[in-house]
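**Discrete fold encoding**
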Amino acid sequence: MNRIDFQKIAELPPSGIQVLLAAGFPDGASILAGYAVECALKACISKRTREHDFPEKKLVNDVIRMTWQAVQLAELKVRIGDW
């Protein structure tokens, strides 16, 4: 995949997420939303690198993992009424 592919996935309308939520599948909606965020991050990272000079996979995965943990923490705070 390249930057354009990542951008296209990240810019898909959130209707699939809304359908999953309405059907009672919040975990599926969360996974789909996380995938869109992952693709958006990868598009940003690839935009700032030279062709064939993508950062090592571990670095990219660490950034994505930390971002996902931040999203989960924010979701938890919303659920317990901390925000």
